[in-house]
Each structure stands twice: as structure tokens, then as C-alpha cells.
Design goal:
The structure holds two protein chains of two kinds.
Chain A lengths: L2 H7 L3 E4 L2 H5 L5 E3 L3 H6 L6 E4 L4 H9 L4 E4 L7 H10 L2 E4 L4 H10 L10
Helix pairs in contact in A: 4-5
Chain B lengths: L4 E8 L8 H12 L4 H22 L1 E8 L3 E8 L7 H4 L9 H4 L8 H8 L2 E7 L3 E9 L2
Antiparallel strand pairs in B: 1-2, 2-3, 3-5, 4-5
Helix pairs in contact in B: 1-2, 2-5
Classes of the chains: A alpha/beta, B alpha+beta.
Chain lengths: 118, 141
């Protein structure tokens, strides 16, 4: 699966994306509003779904080498967040779906959380 | 690289949105220098958590990083209130962060445990009313 597939599954709109970012392969994802929880479980997740909108979301994704952030519930980040994502080449998407539904749709299509017991 | 490379950063305490700039800069430097991705990520996460802690609890501080081929050493120094009970602060889920910090996605009580988890050595020196120093070492291999 790549970032374009994520867009299709979540009926998401692009806030910002590079061509390479859209074609990046993704194998696992993580959904959380607590960035410390995201940082606590390193499993090569490539996509972060969150309802949190602040620059630390982009910084957290950058530290984790993630390719894509999906803002759920149609949330839109401000320009400073978009600029930071551009600098770090991290795709920003938004979906109207809420967190549970967005994660469920991706799971149903085969994306996993990267935890051993799944 | 025959000599150690020393980097110094001031971590401003008044702007939460800038927390993480120093760790981001170190991460990019290590990438340029060709360190392996696992070591880079461990440095980035541990230092980022430390930076966030300094901003949340201590009004900012300073970060000193020493890069050697075999290891990366980081010292975070603040002049905040100090940690009254380090053992308690190291417990997952224990946090004294105020609610507004939680609304920003931090303060889950995972900062120090995360640093411990991702470093090969970690040590805290703290004095009430004087401040805290967090020492970390990440082996490059």
C-alpha cells in the first residue's frame, strides 16, 4: 500500500504532499492524540492518524521517520504546521472520518499497527 | 571522523511550538554523517522527549551533544525546580504536567521512561530549586 491508497481508502484530501511522498510505501500505522504514546512504540509505522493539530505532531512524525500524517474529523492545520511538514517532506492529509472509523477502514484493507500480537 | 563533534543548543522555554528544534537538527546532522537509522531514531526520540520535558517543566535549558563514531552523548541541563522523586518520575504514566500540556499531546508520563527505553545509558542529577541534568548515551551500532 502507498500513501495514494491511504487517500483513497480514507476519501482524504491533500493539505500538502510531494510526489515522492504520495508514492511512499506504507506498511503500518498508528492512531493517537498523545505524542508521547506515539514515541513510546517504535515499530516502523509510516502513517500517523491524529486529531491533534499543532507543530509537535509534525516533529513527532519526523523523529519517527513517518511519511504521512492524516488529520481526522476534517481538522486543518495552520500555515506554520504546513511549512514544517514541507521542510520535512511529510505528506499532510485530512479526512472527514473520525479516528475510530479512519483506523478501521485502513485495518480492513490490510494496514496493521506493527504490534506483535496483531 | 577522528575527533568528537560538539554541538550546543539553547532550548527556549517560552515557546512550546519550537520544542524539538534542537533534536531535529541533531537528527539531520547524524543522517548527513551516515549513522545507522536505528541509532539516529533512538537519539532523536530520547533527545526530543528531553527537550519537551525542559520546556514543560523547567522553562527551557541547554543541550550539549557529543558525536563520536561509536556513540552519541547528550547532556540536557535546565535551571528548573528539580525532580523531588526521581524513582516516581521514572514510572510510566506518572506525570505532573499541567492540563494545557496534555491538550498539546504530551504529559502522559512517558517522557523519562521513553528516554530510558531508547538510550544505552541514562543518568539524572537533580537538585530541588537548582535544576536538573539528564545524561544519555546511545551506542552507534
Amino acid at each position: 500500500m502507498n500513501v495514494r491508497d491511504i487517500m483513497e481508502i480514507l476519501e482524504a484530501d491533500i493539505i500538502w504532499a510531494s510526489e515522492t511522498g504520495l508514492n511512499a510505501e506504507v506498511h503500518t500505522a498508528c492512531g493517537s492524540d498523545m505524542m508521547s504514546d506515539v514515541l513510546a512504540f517504535v515499530k516502523d509505522q509510516s502513517v500517523l492518524l491524529t486529531g491533534l493539530v499543532n507543530p509537535q505532531v509534525v516533529r513527532t512524525a519526523d523523529m519517527m521517520e513517518m511519511h504521512c500524517i492524516v488529520f481526522v474529523r476534517g481538522k486543518v492545520p495552520d500555515d506554520s504546521i504546513i511549512e514544517l511538514a514541507k521542510e520535512r517532506d511529510i505528506v499532510l492529509l485530512k479526512t472527514r472520518f473520525r479516528m475510530f472509523t479512519a483506523c478501521g477502514r485502513l485495518y480492513q484493507r490490510g494496514l496493521r499497527g506493527g504490534c506483535e500480537k496483531e | 571522523m577522528s575527533q568528537a563533534l560538539h554541538l550546543h543548543y539553547d532550548v527556549p522555554g517560552d515557546d512550546f511550538t519550537r520544542a524539538g528544534e534542537a533534536s531535529g537538527a541533531v537528527k539531520r546532522k547524524l543522517k548527513q554523517m551516515g549513522f545507522n537509522s536505528s541509532a539516529i531514531r533512538r537519539v532523536a526520540i530520547a533527545m526530543y522527549e528531553g527537550e519537551i520535558n525542559m520546556v514543560i517543566h523547567a522553562g527551557g535549558g541547554e543541550a550539549d551533544v557529543e558525536i563520536m563514531p561509536e556513540k552519541i552523548s547528550i547532556v540536557l541541563t535546565d535551571h528548573g525546580p528539580g525532580i523531588p522523586d526521581v524513582e516516581l518520575a521514572m514510572k510510566e504514566g506518572w506525570s505532573t504536567a499541567p492540563d494545557h500540556v496534555r491538550s498539546l499531546g504530551f504529559g502522559a508520563g512517558m517522557g523519562l521512561p521513553n528516554i530510558k527505553k531508547y538510550t544505552d545509558e541514562m543518568r539524572i542529577e537533580t537538585e530541588i530549586g537548582k535544576g536538573t541534568k539528564v545524561f544519555m548515551v546511545i551506542l552507534a551500532q
